[in-house]
């Protein structure tokens, strides 16, 4: 029987969108593929950077966008004369180059195999559900740009998160609402500037390192003042270390959830080493001293907790996928320290650079956020902290980005819903397929990567998004003829 899904739209042309495209071409599951993106395919603010310090926080061995070839990215790099191992972290710019080259290659492969590819240079805002003939109208504003048999949504993050105290100033050219693209900052910041970065996580760290190396004085500030832990890779261990039965018994609404997950982590790590978890982490209260001690642990290879993180993320995502949003948010809040410090740990290379810059005071760390900001007559930002005042030439917000908000009605999926308690978030089945609960039918619409956040809470990384794309192509190959 011939597949009924012949025309597929991929909404979003970033890394997840490219991975979805390559998966569709590899499994030969469509006659026409439409990529709807207002920018060039493979383009990404976070990855299109020539700065060597902008390191991708996913090991090279977990970045392959080619199905059935886990180490395609490392082979790509080694084929260029680089000596890269699967565990290594590499510059974001190399990931961007790889994704764009592989897209062009699979574009040629698609053409050779009779698959038509069309890039529609618009931003999709809505998908209409044309139930009478199982079709989907893709809209940009109020214009119907294409009608297809299926849609794959890979739109990524929405707006930058800006704290309330700064919203009145975001149009000022001395404020950057995001650390990306980094060239936008490095080419516009005056020499030897005093720079304040709001944020102390990965994007803040790599931006601070880049600017400090260009002889700027940088201060990083956040409410906690904490820095991420340090790791040397993000590869799965290759063996099952975590007892699924133990995760299944967890009460995700319990205020003891974090403690119970740590118990599971301790038990799982004991299968790898006799070194207790307490000796694999630093308990220093000072963040710089803690960073230094964790760098030493990483150098010695005494951080076995990193070997179970990918497996832990996958299992938690699986068990939380059918939980309601309140339960998910409660669980994430309870486990915030595990998520922010360890699942979002810093590469050893960048941690060492950060420590050196902190010790030489090229980068300073501040615990707290501004109470008031204003612009003085010298075009400098006057910052009032809780107990002191300071001045900066530039402010950069590395405070993260909002998740996209989608709202499902009887007739459409709104891709630009305003954050509100009133929106009806789409429910996703185990294959990340939009399920219309009132109609009791699954739609031929899939949400991948960041777009799947309502069901897959820990998806803000390349690895899970790419795995989703690979799985979808395989699923369509096996099931599309029945749809």
TrEMBL record:
Keywords: Membrane, Transmembrane, Transmembrane helix
Transmembrane segments: 7-30
Pfam (any one): NAD_binding_9
Keyword Transferase included in the entry's annotation: no
Domain of life, per lineage: Bacteria
InterPro entries for this protein: FAD/NAD-bd_sf (IPR036188), HpyO/CreE_NAD-binding (IPR038732), L-asp_N-monooxygenase_NS-form (IPR052189)
Domain FAD-dependent urate hydroxylase HpyO/Asp monooxygenase CreE-like FAD/NAD(P)-binding per the UniProt entry, residue ranges: 9-157
PANTHER family xref list: BLR0577 PROTEIN
Protein name: FAD-dependent urate hydroxylase HpyO/Asp monooxygenase CreE-like FAD/NAD(P)-binding domain-containing protein
Species for this entry: Photorhabdus khanii subsp. guanajuatensis
């Amino acid at each position: 029987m011939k597949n009924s899904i012949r025309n597929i739209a991929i909404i979003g042309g970033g890394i997840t969108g490219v991975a979805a495209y390559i998966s569709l071409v590899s499994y030969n599951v469509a006659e026409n593929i439409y990529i709807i993106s207002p920018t060039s395919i493979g383009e990404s603010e976070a990855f299109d950077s020539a700065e060597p310090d902008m390191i991708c926080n996913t090991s090279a061995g977990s970045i392959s966008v080619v199905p059935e070839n886990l180490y395609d990215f490392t082979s790509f790099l080694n084929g260029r004369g680089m000596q890269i191992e699967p565990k290594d972290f590499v510059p974001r710019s190399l990931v961007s180059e790889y994704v764009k080259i592989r897209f062009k290659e699979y574009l040629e492969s698609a053409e050779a195999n009779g698959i038509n590819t069309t890039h529609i240079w618009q931003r999709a805002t809505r998908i209409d559900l044309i139930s009478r003939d199982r079709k989907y109208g893709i809209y940009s504003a109020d214009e119907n740009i294409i009608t297809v048999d299926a849609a794959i949504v890979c739109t990524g993050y929405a707006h930058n998160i800006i704290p309330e105290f700064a919203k009145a100033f975001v149009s000022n050219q001395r404020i950057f609402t995001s650390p990306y693209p980094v060239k936008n900052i490095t080419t516009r910041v005056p020499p030897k500037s005093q720079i304040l970065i709001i944020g102390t996580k990965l994007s803040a760290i790599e931006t601070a390192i880049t600017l400090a190396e260009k002889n700027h004085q940088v201060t990083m500030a956040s409410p906690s003042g904490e820095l991420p832990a340090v790791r040397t890779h993000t590869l799965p261990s290759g063996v099952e270390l975590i007892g699924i039965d133990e995760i299944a018994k967890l009460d995700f609404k319990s205020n003891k959830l974090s403690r119970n997950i740590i118990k599971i982590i301790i038990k799982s790590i004991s299968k790898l080493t006799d070194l207790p978890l307490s000796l694999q982490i630093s308990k220093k209260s000072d963040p710089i001293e803690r960073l230094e001690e964790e760098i030493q642990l990483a150098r010695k290879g005494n951080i076995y907790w990193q070997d179970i993180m990918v497996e832990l993320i996958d299992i938690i995502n699986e068990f939380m996928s059918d939980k309601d949003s309140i339960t998910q948010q409660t669980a994430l809040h309870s486990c915030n320290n595990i998520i922010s410090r360890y699942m979002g740990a810093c590469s050893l290379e960048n941690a060492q650079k950060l420590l050196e810059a902190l010790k030489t005071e090229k980068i300073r760390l501040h615990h707290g956020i501004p109470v008031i900001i204003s612009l003085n007559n010298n075009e400098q930002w006057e910052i009032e902290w809780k107990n002191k005042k300071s001045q900066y030439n530039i402010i950069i917000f590395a405070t993260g980005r909002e998740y996209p908000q989608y709202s499902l009605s009887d007739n459409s999926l709104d891709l630009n819903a305003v954050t509100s308690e009133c929106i009806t978030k789409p429910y996703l089945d185990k294959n990340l397929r939009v399920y219309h609960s009132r109609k009791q039918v699954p739609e031929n619409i899939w949400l991948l990567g960041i777009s799947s956040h309502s069901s897959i809470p820990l998806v803000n990384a390349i690895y899970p998004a790419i795995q989703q794309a690979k799985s979808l192509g395989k699923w369509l190959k096996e099931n599309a003829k029945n749809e």
